[in-house]
Amino acid sequence: MNTVNDKQRIDELRAKLDYYNHKYYVENSPEIEDYRFDMLLRELQDLEALHPELFDPNSPTQRVGSDITSEFRSVEHSFPMLSLANTYSLDELHEWVERIEREIGEVEYVCELKFDGTAISLAYRDGALLRAVTRGDGEKGDDVTANVRTIRSVPLHLRGDDYPSYFEIRGEIFMPYASFDRLNAEREAAGEPLLANPRNAAAGTLKQLSSQVVARRGLDCTLYQLAGDALPSASHWGNMAKAREWGFKISDNMRVCRNIAQIDEYIAHWDTERKRLPFPTDGVVVKVNRYDDRRKLGSTAKAPRWAVAYKFKAERAATRLLSIDFQVGRTGAVTPVANLAPVLLAGTTVKRATLHNAEQIAQLDIRIGDTVYVEKGGEIIPKITEVDLAERPADSRPFEYIDRCPECGTPLVRFEGEAKHYCPNQSGCRPQILGRIEHFVSRKAMNIEGLGDETVELLWQNDMLHDIADIYTLHAERLAALPRLGEKSAANIMRNISSSREVPFARVLFALGIRFVGETTAKYLAAHFRSLDAIMAADRDTLAEADEVGERIAEAIVEYLADTANRDIVERLRRAGLQFESEAAELASDVLAGRSFVISGKFASHSREEMKALVESHGGRNLAAVSANVDYLVAGEKMGPAKLQKAQKSGVAIISEEEFLEMIGGAGCSAPHPSHELVPQQDEAETPQQGTLF
Questions:
Q1: Per-domain residue ranges for the chain?
Q2: Which residue in 42, 154, 352, 553 is deepest, having the highest Cβ count within 10 Å?
Q3: Helices marked H in 481-581 — which ranges?
């Protein structure tokens, strides 16, 4: 074995494959046949297997992904990822342009297509991909680097040598229509539920725990914004041209516009031509071109003042209503779904649309056989917005809404103040039983891998699962004997069930599936009451005192716990060893005991999550919104003016970060990281804290 020669060949192959990959996926001009590319890739894989010491996470061989399953860690953005203000009106867009020109005079604009996918920030150090992070809340997002490496249009190494030593580039990861159609065809053949649209498919794919799955799904990525120090150009247009030279996929449909007329022309063109594009787009982004103009305009707490997104009006199509089905959810809610004659809408074939409830059907007077108009305007599931009465058949009859559950035949009920009908047969209605179990084992709840929807239904059909508590009575031997499982799968399931006994109380509470008690509400309940016993002992008024709860949620909790079957399940889960109490937090002090805080803005020495952790570690309480119940608003930079005004109006004390740290005796240097949300920050050498988006 000649290590020196092998290393030279590895370097050569990596460079060649990067080049061919760029030509194929970015420039759409392939230079070699797929077979030849695959042979070079196989040669590289063989050489890398011989030399594990030469491993490079950005090697072309890593494009295929890994089957290693891992959660995503949270990473703070070096530069905040602000959202864009939206408008659906040309008049509002014109007012935005006029306001800018009143403030700073005539400026150049860059118009770009708004891709309908999921935002991403790519960090590069010394020309190599360092990290890929989702938008998240704008301040921090999920590290999805392993998955993004599988996207062929994302360069793992840059071309040339004139790029900054560290910079970030933002863009959109999306699923082209061809990839979406292929994926749904595969899912249909496998009997799996179809994905709603390319946007959701892209977002869901990016969060897959196996990068091998991501690699197979055909995601694409277009970049549209540089962030960092010492950028090569003083204009957005110039930086995008340079980014294209470095190997990034930059849209060819950008245009410099110098007035409203040119902007309108661009929008009108793409409002029609977008239907011919091979990927989803839902509008046009208009940006001020020069960075010095951007700096003059600045940003609000949520969005830059130098950019706006014009959203195209929702596409709609006419088709015929063939029939109406009814779906029953895990809470018993009954949802009518329209079956339609297939129609092409926004790049996908639509066969079904939501009808929401009986009131909507009555309001629209929808009848079987009607010609209806369907829209997808931001909806996950298309919706019917209008009936073409001129096309209504002469013999049509008003639709009669069902009064019994379509699954179990139980008479439906309707709760006061709610539009939906419900099946009250929680213990005997199949979709409710399966839905509650599927919710219980889901990733954000008990996270029991191996108990997917198909396996849950298999266990139910074999009389092994009747409710969520039955999960903890399963045995490996019986599982292994079932079709499609076997000993290995059974052992994995049992191991994951055992691990779920360590899931914190807040997630257990969420997993119970109480109506209206979502993930966030469960956290507030767990923090306020500390145990399930305390929740069970509380009346409606006491429950409503907890943050983010209120009367409706309190009523739902009381109703759930009043049901003897639910209480029996709770007690069986208790005997199974689940966490029904919050771990007592070890306080640094109690100097903030009895006082409540709202943390808002950006701080010099701590992140917002660190500040909140400090509040709790010194006995205080964090609240989400400013109200008369708040004692202090800790105000950082770029805090929203609405919170400040409300605090002043409510008589809430407004303090700075320094004043807050003085309250706790200067303990700010030892702020604990909340383990469920953050990871330790990168050192300064890896992640610069200065720079600009401008």
A1: 3-64, 75-311, 316-391, 430-502, 505-575, 596-670
A2: 154
A3: 486-499, 505-511, 519-529, 532-537, 540-544, 550-562, 564-575
Say what the pTM is: 0.52
Residue 197 or residue 438, greater confidence: 438
* Burial zone of 433 (CB within 10 Å; 0-12 exposed, 13-18 middle, 19+ buried): buried
The tens digit of pLDDT for each residue in 436-470 reads 999 999 988 999 999 988 999 999 999 999 999 99
Contacts of 399 (CB under 8 A, 6+ apart): 324, 361, 366, 367, 368
pLDDT tens digits, 614-639? 888 888 887 767 878 789 999 988 77
Beta-strand pair 316-328/371-375? antiparallel
Angle at 330 between CA 324 and CA 335, to 5 degrees: 20
668: DSSP letter: G
DSSP 117: S
Give the chain's end-to-end CA distance (angstroms, integer): 52
Closest alpha carbon to 280 in 340, 355, 376, 347: 347
So what CATH class is 3-64?
mainly alpha
Identified catalytic residue from 7, 16, 23, 114: 114
CATH number 3.20.20.60 given to 596-670: no
Among candidate residues 86, 151, 111, 120, the one with its CA nearest the CA of residue 251: 111
114 a catalytic residue: yes
The domain 505-575 is placed in CATH, from the list 2.40.10.340, 2.40.340.10, 3.30.559.70, 1.10.150.20, at 1.10.150.20
Concatenate the DSSP letters of all residues of 48-104 into one string. HHH-GGG--TTSGGGGG------PPPEEE-SS-----EEE--HHHHHHHHHHHHHHH
Compute CA distances 13 → 51, 102, 245, whole Å: 14, 56, 21
Tell which CATH classification among 3.40.50.2000, 3.40.50.740, 3.40.920.10, 3.30.470.30 matches the domain 75-311.
3.30.470.30
pLDDT at 680: 28
Same fold, 3-64 and 316-391: no
Q: Per-residue pLDDT tens for 594-615?
A: 888 888 888 888 877 788 888 8
pLDDT tens digits, residue range 653-682?
A: 999 998 999 898 864 444 433 333 322 233
* Per-residue tokens: 503: 């899931």
Could you tell me which of 366, 375, 401, 251 has the C-alpha nearest to residue 315?
Answer: 375
Q: Identify whether the C-beta of residue 330 lies closer than 8 Å to the C-beta of residue 382.
A: no
Residue 65 · residue 212 · CB < 8 Å: yes
Q: Please give the C-alpha separations between residue 230 and each of 167, 247, 512, 522, 684, in angstroms, as whole numbers.
A: 9, 19, 52, 46, 17
CA-CA distance, 295 to 330, in Å (whole number)?
A: 51
Was domain 430-502 assigned CATH 2.170.270.10?
no
| 13-27 tens-digit pLDDT | 888 887 877 676 566
Identify the CA nearest to 511 among candidates 610, 601, 580, 462: 580
Residue 38: per-residue pLDDT:
66
Residue 518: how many other CB atoms lie within 10 Å = 13
CATH number assigned to the domain covering 316-391: 2.40.50.140
Q: How crowded is the C-beta side of 226, counted as CA atoms within 13 Å? A: 29
DSSP-assigned beta bridge partners for residue 257:
109
